[in-house]
Amino acid sequence: MLTSLLRLGKGYVRIRLTGYSPERFLNLCRSREILIWDLQNNGIAYEMCLSVADFRRLKPLLKKTHSRLILLERHGLPFFLYRYRKRKMFFAGMLLAACILYGLSFFIWNIHIEGNISLSTEVLLEYLESEHVVHGMWKKDVDCEAIRTGLRIRYPDIVWVSAEIRGTRLIIRMKENRDSFQPEEQEEEPEARDIVAARDGVLTSILVRTGVPKAAAGETVEEGQLLISGTLDILDDAGTVLRHQYVSSDGSIYAETTYSYADTFLLSHEEQIYTGRKRHTFYLEAGERRLTFSNPLQSFVNSSTIKKEYPLHLTENFYLPFTLGTTVQEEYEILVRSYTKEEAETLAKAHLEEFMEKLREKGVQIIKNDVKISTTDYDCQAKGTIYVIEEIGRPVPLVPQEEAIPLDEEPKDGES
Fold it and tell me: DSSP letters along 36-100, please?
C-alpha cells in the first residue's frame, strides 16, 4: 500500500517494448538498476511499468538494442497537476478546503456522554454549558481535570468520571452509584384497612388471609360493600368485647360480574390512499442556521413526512459543525368510501376482541360473550353484555370504631 502511494506521488508510466532483442534491453535495465514491475509478455511485445525518472534514462538503451517504445499510460500526481495546470481556482479551492478543515480541528464539535443512567444527557449538557463547556469551543480551553472534578462535586452519585479529547470530540465517561437510585426499603407497620367490593357481582370464592370475612361465596354484593373487615374483636372469657385490634385486611375475592359493551361506527369513512408521488428536501444546518434545497414548485395538500439527520464527520472522532438532513414527503389523497356488511362486521368483531383482550391483560376471565352485531344502511352497532370472573376486592382505609360516629345517631348537647 505504501509503495503504491509513493509511486503515485512520484508518477509512473506503462510502456510497450518491441524490437529484435527485448531480452537484452531488460538485462541492461537490470544492470543499470532501473526498476521494472508488472512485466507482461503478450507474444509480440513486452509491457511494463516504471517510474518517470527511470523512463528518462531509457533512450541510450533503446538505441543500443535497436528497440522501439510506445507509451501506453501515465499515472500519478505529476501528470494530474500538469493536466489541470490552467485550473488555478480548482487548486486554490482544494487548498482553502484543507485550510478550513485544519482550522476546524482546533474546536470541539461533539460532546459525547456515556454511562449516565439516572442523569439525562440534556441535564449534563446544561451543567457543562453553565461551566462554559459548549460545542464550538477551543480545544485548548478544555480543562478535562476541571470537568471531572466539577461533575463529581455537582453530582455526588457519580462515583467515577473521565474526560478526554479525541479529534474534535469531547468524550465523557461516567459511572453512577446504582444503590443511590434504588429506594431504601423501610419496614413500616401495615396500615389498618378493610376490603370492599369494587363492582357489583356474585361471589364465586373468597379466601381470607388477614381479617374477618363479612360475606360468603354465592352471595350477591354491591359496589362498596364490606367484604373483609380489618377490625378484630378481643373478647374476655364471658364473650364480652374488651377492645378492638385493627389489622390490614388481606385476601383474594373473586366474583362473577358483567361489563356492558357498546360500539357504533359509520359505514362511510375516509381512507388515505398514497399516490406514489414524493417530494425530497435536503438541508444543511450549521448551528442555528439552515440552508434548504427543495423544489418550490412542488407542494402537496395532504402528505406524511419522514425526517432523517446525519451529523457530518470525516472520521470517528473528527466531527464537523454541520448536519445534513433529508425530508421525504409522501402525498396521499383522502377518499370517502363505505364498508360492506361483511367488512363492517369483521371490523366490529376486531373492536370487540381488542376490548376483551384488554380485560384479559388485567387478569379477567371471560366466561360468556353476549354481544350482538347489527348493520343498517348507514352504521354498524355492537351491543351486549360480557360475563366475566374477576377479583373485586378493593382495600380502603379503616376507620376505628371509637372514632366512628353512626350516621343515624344525633349528636348530644355540647357535642359537635
Answer: -EEEEE-SS-EEEEEEHHHHTT-HHHHHHHTEEEEEEEEESHHHHHHHTTT-HHHHHHHHHHHHH
pLDDT digits (tens, 9 = 90+) for 213-259: 999 999 999 999 999 998 888 887 777 877 888 889 999 999 999 99
Which cell goes with 278? Answer: 414524493
**Amino acid identity at 388:** V
* C-beta separation of 61 from 98 below 8 A: no
DSSP state of 139: G
How does DSSP classify residue 189?
P
- φ, ψ of residue 295 to 5 degrees: the values are -95, 105
Q: Indicate the pTM of the whole model.
A: 0.51
Q: How far apart are CA 45 and CA 34, in angstroms?
A: 19
Write the CA distances from 196 to 104, 223, 228, 249, 257, integer angstroms.
70, 8, 7, 10, 15
d(C-alpha 155, C-alpha 153), whole Å: 6
C-alpha cell read off for 26: 531488460
Cα torsion 392, 398, 401, 403 to 10°: value is: -140
142-187 pLDDT per residue, tens: 999 999 999 989 888 888 999 999 888 999 999 988 665 455 555 5
Distances, alpha carbon 174 to alpha carbons 13, 187, 416, in Å: 56, 33, 62
Q: Which of 315, 309, 376 is nearest to 345 (CA)?
A: 376
Helix (H) or strand (E) holding 291: strand 289-293
Q: Any idea which residue has 487548486 for its cell?
A: 91
